Amino acid sequence: MPAERIRDHVGAGATTVAAHRRRLRADRARQLADLLRRLLLRGGFPDGVLPHEAAIGADYGASRNTVRQALDLLRAEGLVERLPGVGTIVVAEKYEHGLDRLMGLAETLHEHGPVTNEVRTVGTVSAPAPVAERLGLPDSAEVLHIERLRRLGGLPLSFDVSYLPLDIGAPLLGADLENTDVFRLLESMTGQPLGHADITLEAVSADVHSAAVLGVPRGAAVLMLDRLTHLADGRPVDVEFIRFRGDRIRMSGRMPRFP
Amino acid sequence: MPAERIRDHVGAGATTVAAHRRRLRADRARQLADLLRRLLLRGGFPDGVLPHEAAIGADYGASRNTVRQALDLLRAEGLVERLPGVGTIVVAEKYEHGLDRLMGLAETLHEHGPVTNEVRTVGTVSAPAPVAERLGLPDSAEVLHIERLRRLGGLPLSFDVSYLPLDIGAPLLGADLENTDVFRLLESMTGQPLGHADITLEAVSADVHSAAVLGVPRGAAVLMLDRLTHLADGRPVDVEFIRFRGDRIRMSGRMPRFP
């Protein structure tokens, strides 16, 4: 990224030349980090080792300082580590969760191994008003409430809170929630496939309690999914608040200009 | 949420009773915060003031301590503030960006007011290898490189870095990038609509530089969008790395079980 050809609109006039240079280097480091992040999350370094700093610099037309700063950004995200004598190695896998099709976590990640669920809470509660409303239930109706910490290969991926109508949810009390997606159980128990889900994705900072459950530092970036799942017949049956570890899950899909 | 009816699987046996109670209260506070967050982001408190703590407690069957802890979580996210003598007020609007249809930011948010763009950089650079590859260009081909800080009503929403092939992008050099979506410019300049985009969403912590640009604390949660946009004829024309402020943008859509 040869910087001399970049025309700069906010310009050095407003600041000192040194501050301007720092800003340009920070911009270039971030741009380089974005490119390397994409490569490493997609297995672009098959042996798990990044090229030497000098080689990265040559490939991307970046100075040694910029390369170092870019690698520092990736290290701060928990994606790479530096091993003396070895170089910079990829330490994290960030699993892809599809946005195009509604799937449970175990279903989504089956190629990577089994998902296990630590069921922290399961039982009936009186539905909070916003939950009752979304499920089309009367105020304070009984609902099934489930909290699960979900892991792949022992590593926490997400912390899920679900609310289900009792007529739909009660059979789940005897089911193997530790090893089975709720989606799969719902389909086998109702005898009909799921239809669709309305979702909202947000980036939030982990509160101290969620951070402890997910095994991340307080304030770590969390991909939060609010999902209302419907059966094929249109009935809403599952309100969920899911916190994915930001360093372990990404969501990918295709968006059409004219659906 | 009457806790006494919640059957607990990890149980008090493993910890002290006091620690167990703290965990249950933290769980309930988070659950309550999730419900209130959803309401407030959807305008559920039309006058912008939340009910008194006691009223929230009564509505949700939660103790005063749990309500306070839930409001503290929302305050930490920058969504509410406490005003002495007034109560808890909503201070943030979190705009909805659709996942179902490919749209530019100004197009998406037109009901909320005009989006203005601070063009920080615009110029040609030699395409980094991963950019060239995604755009179907030869290595080191010249591409147009644009960096914009995008605002709504003066408030920073996102920090966008784009790379476009030069034959497509060059006309943008003379265009009103300050006030127009690149998507709209692309459609008017190529004379064809956009087709689709391949997207990846991640939650990341803001590095110090991005945080300064976006006006958020270092480490704040950022919703990062990696997007490759194609024209209707299938040609990939726009590689973007977009950092949305996590406290200002959420992404919503509908996912079918069987597309």
Characterise the protein shown here:
The structure is a homodimer of 259-residue chains. Chain A is α+β, with helices and mostly antiparallel strands. Chain A has two domains: 3-90, Winged helix-like DNA-binding domain superfamily/Winged helix DNA-binding domain (Arc Repressor Mutant, subunit A), CATH 1.10.10.10; 95-252, Chorismate lyase (3-Layer(aba) Sandwich), CATH 3.40.1410. Chain A has eight helices and eleven strands. Chain A has helices at 17-41, 53-60, 64-76, 105-108, 129-135, 166-169, 182-190, 208-214, and strands spanning 6-8, 80-83, 87-90, 95-98, 115-126, 142-152, 155-165, 194-205, 221-231, 236-245, 249-256. Chain A has a six-stranded antiparallel β-sheet. A two-stranded antiparallel ribbon of chain A has the order 2-3. A two-stranded parallel ribbon of chain A has the order 4-11. In chain A, a hairpin with a 3-residue loop joins β2 (80-83) and β3 (87-90). In chain A, α2 (53-60) packs across α3. The first copy, chain A, is elongated. Chain A starts with 5 loop residues before the first strand and ends with a strand.
What is the structural class of chain A?
Answer: alpha+beta
β-sheet strand percentage of chain A = 25-35%
Q: List SSEs of chain A in N-to-C order.
A: EHHHEEEHEHEEHHEHEEE
Q: Find the biggest chain interface.
A: A-B, 87 and 87 residues
CATH superfamily membership of the largest domain in chain A: Chorismate lyase-like
SS elements, strand count of chain A: 11
Low-confidence runs of at least 5 consecutive residues of chain A:
1-14
Shape of chain A: elongated
